[in-house]
Amino acid sequence: MKLTNLLERSPLWLQVQAKYELMPEKDRRALHLLTALLLVAAVYLLVWEPVTAWSESQKEEFAYQQSVHEWMEENIGPAKMAQKKQKTAAGKKDLSSVVSGSARQADLTLSRVQPDRKGLGVWIEDAAYQKLLAWMVALDTRYEVTIQQVKIDRGKDEGRVKVYMHLAN
Predict the structure, then answer these.
(1) Whole-prediction pTM value?
(2) pLDDT of residue 92
(3) For residue range 103-123, what is the model confidence (pLDDT) as tens digits?
(4) Are 96 and 120 spatial neighbours (Cβ–Cβ below 8 Å)?
């Protein structure tokens, strides 16, 4: 309501209205046709074309995702088999060699390593606590060694510990 009141009072609107009324009927029809044509062109360029382009890109993306899904469905079985083979090969590795090699990398000295039916007993007489924690995390995450039991006692010096651990594959 306010917009129409504002337009009716506007001198520019009054001039346009006056010129429109002075136009011959043929020019008015041509102006109506031109206005309708411009409106259709604007709708096409500003709405229809972007929506169509978006729709086509979404169809292409869907087709791509569908092909990836089909490929994954076809290859999931062989991938699981390969993963099982890799885990069993890693499991067959000698636990004591994995533990001693990783301890060397972590700069830890193992004082005693004793295999048994359920796994491996490991004693460390003197180790830096922070290095020991990092080694235990590496055993669990990188080497997939299960730490079944841990006994940590305070060492002679500050930050040093004495450790017994029981490990299994």
Answers:
(1) 0.46
(2) 46
(3) 999 889 899 999 888 889 999
(4) yes
Looking at the predicted structure, is the pLDDT value of residue 93 above 70? no
- Binned at pLDDT 50, 70 and 90, residue 2 comes out as confident
Separation of alpha carbons 157 and 134, rounded Å = 19
132, 133, 138, 144 alpha-carbon torsion, rounded to 10°: 100
Token pair listed for 21: 């009324």
* Residue tagged 């206005």 (tokens): 35
C-beta of residue 28 within 8 angstroms of C-beta of residue 20? yes
Q: Enter the tokens of residue 151.
A: 């006994």
User: Residue 163: in which H helix or E strand, if any?
Assistant: strand 160-168
The 10s digit of each residue's pLDDT in 27-82 is 999 999 999 999 999 999 999 999 999 999 999 999 999 999 999 999 998 888 88
Residues 135, 103: contact at Cβ < 8 Å? yes
- Backbone phi, psi, residue 80, to 5°: -65, -40
pLDDT at 158 over 70: yes
Contact 94, 108 (CB under 8 A): no
CA separation, residue 4 to residues 7, 28, 99, 103, 119 (Å): 5, 22, 86, 85, 89
Q: Look up residue 47 and give its DSSP letter.
A: I
Phi, psi (degrees; rounded to nearest 5) at 24: -70, 160
